[in-house]
Design goal:
The chain is an alpha+beta fold and 222 residues long. The chain is 63% helix and 11% strand. It is elongated.
Length: 222
């Protein structure tokens, strides 16, 4: 007896060819699925599955194995998840605090004790210092919040989102130097006011990337 072939089309949070490559092994190996395609041209990407009595729940189960989901009408699009934006904002603020400590601390130190340091070296040293303090802060948080060993906490902190930290550091330091010219005139109110846009730009630059990592891989910068 021939089994009934079903065709199911579902909205998903798949969004690119990389996503398709990620689900391909699971869908290709499933014996109940005879053919499947993803429409990347749609605003919300749709997955069409043809198979022997396949169901929505079965397809959803396969998607979840690769970290994706079936979207219903009341679910947000990939970039429309408000709770995830809140989480990404909190994570990015933690990253901003860690980076700012080393970044601006190094600038203050160089201007106070080595004022003749070339601007390019001030930027490089400030970025390195900011990355170090951000990783140190996250290591401490992981140690006491997640009860990791020191070595494992350091490894996780370094690997969580180095790209995010670098982007934040470049944005903050670049903005600060564009406004102040690299001179930390501590008595000048303009210098202290320049910290505000530098922090804002430093926060906004990696925020979409941190949201993307949370949404796609369920990983966080902090």
């Amino acid at each position: 007896m021939n089994r009934k072939m079903e065709t199911i089309t579902l909205k998903t949070d798949i969004h690119c060819q990389g996503c398709i490559d990620a689900i391909k092994p699971i869908f290709d190996e499933d014996e109940s699925i005879k053919n499947w395609t993803v429409d990347l041209g749609a605003e919300v990407k749709t997955l069409t599955v043809i198979g022997d009595a396949v169901s929505v729940s079965h397809v959803d189960h396969l998607l979840k194995q690769s970290g994706y989901n079936v979207l219903t009408d009341d679910q947000p699009s990939f970039w429309g998840d408000r709770p995830l934006w809140s989480r990404a904002t909190f994570n990015t603020l933690n990253c901003l605090i860690g980076c700012s400590i080393g970044d601006f601390g190094m600038i203050f130190y160089l201007q106070a004790f080595y004022p003749d340091t070339a601007m390019i070296w001030q930027m490089v040293l400030a970025i390195i210092a900011g990355l170090c303090t951000s990783i140190i802060l996250e290591t401490v948080l992981l140690k006491y919040r997640e009860h990791f060993s020191w070595l494992y906490a350091l490894k996780v902190a370094f690997g969580m989102s180095f790209i995010s930290m670098v982007a934040m550091e470049l944005a903050m330091t670049g903005t600060d130097f564009m406004i102040t010219g690299g001179k930390a005139a501590f008595s000048d109110p303009v210098y202290w006011l320049a910290l505000i846009p530098a922090l804002i730009v430093g926060f906004l630059t990696p925020l979409p990337y941190n949201y993307y990592k949370l949404k796609k891989y369920n990983k966080a910068c902090h």
